[in-house]
């Protein structure tokens, strides 16, 4: 296809059990004028074999097999190759409803949108995962109008509803290219930085209250792996880059960046309770150096300093509950 209207970009790394279903959910879209750019990021589990077979069935697929360098570099490569008017970033272990891209394209065109967001639901075949704990629903909170990017971030943060996974965003390619936004290499959660930044430039953001995306929760995925110092350092980088996005005199933007950073550092502080003392000291030092101590909620500071109280609370919860129930 010479001029696709939508470019779907999908990085793949070791998702052999799910990748064919994910790709098929894109190929079966009712919207046909799309290209599918698949970047196999050095998979070692047989995913490459499946992708080679699938790509031979549909000429809309462009498959790149490359060495493993991380999802940021894979997505960035796909972004450079994309020709569509709009971009959609798909994960290789999930499912997109067949009507999603058609509905998104029509709405984006009608309202001349820079960004269109929608909802997702989580599921898992593994009984150890509580899918309901991963909430991507904004129904009843966001209306059918058109919003300014900074305005919608501010509003969603106030409702604890700001979510930035790639797969709930349908984005005008010109917004990304003209503002020089790219995926930061070498970090985890690079999408959190990328999608926060595109909102800064977006003038027209819309919402469709539909669960178009099915998010699969599985062991050893990025979302479900144990919190680590690598993730902490990645969040430090995201905070530093958000800081660099400030614009002198743009008080509304700078205030929203403050809120984003505060939101991130509170999440990091709470999750850092699972880290070693020396690692928690690194987190605390960063918070103090960046002048973020006052931004921490008391609960999160307490968890960072005294995480054993959380373990004690969990250990006592069931016995105490049993005594009360009896």
Quick overview:
The protein has 326 residues and is of the alpha/beta class. It has twelve helices and eight strands.
Can you walk through the features of this model?
Helix content is 44%, strand content 16%. The protein has 326 residues and is α/β, with parallel strands linked by helices. The protein has two domains: 6-216, Spore Coat Polysaccharide Biosynthesis Protein SpsA, Chain A; 229-315, no CATH class. It has an eight-stranded mixed beta sheet, sandwiched between helices. The protein starts with 5 loop residues before the first strand and ends with a helix.
What sequence of helices (H) and strands (E) makes up the elements?
Answer: EHEHEHEEHEHEHHEHHHHH
- Structural class call reads alpha/beta
Helix content estimate: 40-55%
What's the rounded overall pLDDT mean? 91
Number of strands: 8
Unreliable parts: none
The CATH C-level class name of the largest domain: Alpha Beta
Query: What is the count of distinct domains?
Result: 2
| CATH overall fold name of the largest domain | Spore Coat Polysaccharide Biosynthesis Protein SpsA, Chain A
CATH superfamily of the largest domain: Spore Coat Polysaccharide Biosynthesis Protein SpsA, Chain A
Number of helices: 12
Radius of gyration: 21 Å
> Looking at the structure, what is the overall shape?
globular
- Main sheet? 8 strands, mixed
Strand order of the largest sheet: 3-2-1-4-7-6-8-5
CATH architecture of the largest domain: Alpha-Beta Complex
Strand content: 15-25%
Q: Give the termini separation.
A: 69 Å
